[in-house]
Write a structure and sequence with these properties.
Layout (H helix, E strand, L loop, with lengths): L2 H36 L8 E2 L14 E11 L6 E8 L13 E9 L6 E9 L9 E6 L13 H9 L5 E8 L3 E2 L6 E6 L3 H14 L5 E7 L8 H10 L3 E7 L14 E2 L4 H7 L6 E5 L2 H14 L6 E4 L27 E5 L4 E5 L6 H7 L17 E6 L2 E2 L12 E3 L4 E2 L3 E3 L2
Parallel strand pairs: 9-10, 9-13, 10-11, 11-12, 13-14, 15-21
Antiparallel strand pairs: 1-8, 2-3, 2-7, 3-6, 4-5, 4-7, 15-16, 17-19, 17-21, 18-20
């Protein structure tokens, strides 16, 4: 064999090996894509979300007294404040699942200062579990521009009237939106104050599973609205498995790309296409309703399996999915059909309900019936009411599990003619 022939054979062998390598790599890549597309990826994350309830972690019955041990401002505009809560009885605190929330019973002065209203509100825990304290981070809610409406009552009460040393009535951690241990990669997506449950998940991963691949997308308007910026940057700098992406939709002149933020624009699927490797991620989302509506539908259109998209929103029925959520045991989950009559037994009122009437809570209030309520999003259980007869429907399972034979009026509608205790 001549030298030229030998050289050609060597070149042929090299090209053959390269071709085989590329073919095998493409085949493996394609199989991963198919599994991801069909939601059958081998790498699964054990999770529970608002549409997949599991048994709640151990807590305590009713409300327990906590003392505000300290406060901390978390953003440069001083609109987000963290409250560190310690139990007044000094007993150890039960663990909770990262992503869950606390329910508070507050005594808030009336607008005219003539009395006290008792209101119930839910706030996400914003840290990994600790045995001696809990933390919630609350954003002061201003009145909507040019609306004439009042500012957020509970958030402003926390900021202005809950100093260190104040005692609060607190219900045990609860909620079906949380992260459990697992080896699969995750994407945490936060918008505005929706960072709080995401931060709980991130801190938990950092403490217990630092080897886990985590992508953290955080969308705000500019640097003044970025909460926990130093903390987030420190985690990303210390852990190569954490990939932080700060997204500013309207950066200020002093906000520097590459230093203060990574992406000019909103968090969207196009950004995921550019940033994320092709893997079977589970996506956890919490933020304003418009952001959630866009992301949930866009992820589904991109081919992400419905079981891989988990979200939390106040008023979860406003977020539409391809498949309906799971209703509590024994409660129908289909839409009401035809004319429906709702009877309020104690109030002695009876009226025709239509889909335009909204939830049973809104319908009752429209009839002049006062219902004790709190979060109005299925989280606190304040509006739990006994069903004397008939059935109700939930589009998605509420975070608070109603007792058998009852319903949460704020997030359900009648499926049949129904009689309620109230």
């Amino acid at each position: 064999m001549t030298s030229l022939g030998l050289l050609l054979w060597i070149i042929f062998g090299i090209f053959l090996q390269v071709g085989l390598f590329l073919g095998i790599s493409f085949w493996q890549h394609w199989q991963t894509y198919i599994r991801l597309k069909q939601g059958q990826a081998e790498l699964q994350v054990p999770v529970a979300s608002v549409n997949s309830p599991k048994e709640e972690s151990a807590g305590w019955p009713g409300f327990r007294v906590f003392k505000v041990a300290s406060r901390a401002i978390e953003d440069s505009s001083q609109q987000i404040c963290s409250f560190y809560l310690e139990p007044e009885d000094h007993q150890p605190l039960p663990d909770y699942r990262p992503g869950q929330f606390l329910t508070f019973r507050l005594e808030v002065p009336t607008a005219d200062g003539s009395g006290i209203d008792q209101i119930t509100r839910c706030y996400s825990l914003s840290d990994a579990p600790h045995p001696d304290h809990y933390r919630v981070s609350i954003k002061r809610v201003p009145p909507p521009p040019r609306s004439g409406l009042s500012p957020g009552r509970s958030s402003n009460f926390f900021h202005d009237h809950i100093p260190v040393g104040t005692t609060l009535q607190v219900r045990a951690p609860s909620g079906h939106f949380y992260l459990e241990p697992g080896s699969g990669p995750i994407v945490l997506i936060a918008g505005g104050i929706g960072i709080t449950p995401m931060l709980s998940m991130l801190n938990w991963c950092q403490a217990h599973q630092p080897e886990r691949e985590v992508w953290f997308f955080y969308g705000v308007r500019n640097g003044q609205e970025t909460a926990f910026a130093t903390h987030l940057s420190a985690i990303a700098a210390a852990n190569p498995n954490v990939h932080l992406r700060l997204c500013f939709s309207d950066p200020l002149p002093d906000d520097q790309p590459g230093k203060d933020f990574h992406h000019h624009g909103r968090v969207d699927v196009n950004l995921f296409r550019m940033e994320l490797p092709l893997k079977p991620y589970h996506y956890f989302i919490c933020g304003p309703t418009p952001m959630m509506e866009n992301l949930v539908s866009a992820l589904e259109a991109w081919g992400v399996a419905d079981s891989h998209v988990h979200f939390e929103a106040f008023g979860p029925a406003s977020i539409k999915r391809r498949t309906p959520g799971t209703a509590p045991a024994g409660i129908a989950a289909t839409a009401p059909v035809g004319d429906i009559t709702v009877t309020f037994a104690k109030s002695g009122k009876c009226a025709q309900w239509s889909p335009q009437s909204g939830s049973l809570l809104e319908f009752a209030e429209a009839q002049g019936i006062t219902i004790d309520s709190g979060c109005r999003a299925g989280g606190c259980g304040t509006c739990q009411t006994t069903i004397r007869s008939g059935e109700v429907a939930y589009r998605q399972s509420p975070d608070f599990d109603p007792e058998p034979g009852t319903c949460l009026m704020c997030v359900c509608t009648p499926k049949t003619n129904v009689t309620l205790e109230t």
